Amino acid sequence: MAAARELLDAEGPDALSMRRIAERVGIRAPSLYKHFPDKAAVEAGLQVQGMTRLAEELEAAAAEIGVEPPLLVLARAYRRHALASPHLYRITHGRPLARTALPEGLEDRAAAPLAHAAHGDIHIARSLWAFAHGMVVLELDGRFPPGADLDAAWRTGCDAFTQAIRDKPREDIA
Questions:
Q1: Contact (CB, 8 A) for 87 and 7
Q2: 85-141 per-position pLDDT tens digit
Q3: Topology of 51-172 in CATH?
Q4: Alpha carbon 143 to chain centroid distance?
Q5: What is the third-level CATH fold of 1-36?
Q6: In 15-149, alpha helices (H)
Q7: Alpha carbons 52 and 102: distance in angstroms, whole number
Q8: Of 36, 48, 39, 23, nearest to 98 (Cα)?
Q9: Residue 124 in contact with residue 70, Cβ under 8 Å?
Q10: Are 41 and 95 in contact (CB under 8 A)?
Q11: Cα(82)–Cα(92) distance, rounded to whole angstroms?
Q12: Quick one: angle between helices 106-117 and 122-140, nearest 10?
């Protein structure tokens, strides 16, 4: 997995192949199949790494929430997470999630800080995640105009979600 991650970080998802990973560890490709049945298993392992890292970073951010709006703090952590390792982010969040390969509870753990900040409203939490994912992908793809104030765009989005949470009748929040 370490060799796969190094290859991913250095060259991106398209560079991942059983042959290239085997070369990195100094073995022949057929020997790698003793450890991983196929490339999908390697990608699933990388998704576990990415999801674990996201959970840890969001949990750390949640523990630091103070005066600033909680959604903004979590959104910044999500953005930092994606921009720090864009290839791992794309493998983890830009492809179908290998849920059966995830350790039990990991997906819920990664979602918990957002769900908590959304006062348990799963619809708001999912919408916030979709907003954050879309913003990050657009940033990674260089789709914003030069000089665009992305910090202001993130704040505006988080403010809108914060207002939606405030406006939600308490009995509607599950």
A1: no
A2: 999 999 999 999 999 999 999 999 999 999 999 999 999 999 999 999 999 999 999
A3: Tetracycline Repressor; domain 2 (1.10.357)
A4: 19
A5: Arc Repressor Mutant, subunit A (1.10.10)
A6: 18-25, 29-32, 39-63, 70-84, 86-93, 106-117, 122-140
A7: 9
A8: 48
A9: no
A10: no
A11: 10
A12: 100
Give the integer Cα–Cα distance in Å for 61 and 65. Answer: 6
**Which own/partner pairs from 12-21 qualify as long-range (CB within 8 Å, at least 24 positions apart)?**
12/87, 12/90, 13/87, 13/90, 13/91, 16/42, 16/43, 18/42
Determine contact, residues 75/113, Cβ cutoff 8 Å.
no
Q: Which tens digit of pLDDT belongs to each residue from 54-73? A: 999 999 999 998 888 999 99
Domain ranges of the chain: 1-36, 51-172
State the pTM of this model. Answer: 0.91
Task: At 169, list the tokens.
Answer: 């009748």
In angstroms, rounded to a whole number, what is the distance separating the alpha carbons of residues 33 and 39?
A: 9
3-class state of residue 44 by DSSP: helix
Using N-to-C axis directions, what is the helix angle for 70-84 and 86-93, rounded to 10°?
Answer: 110
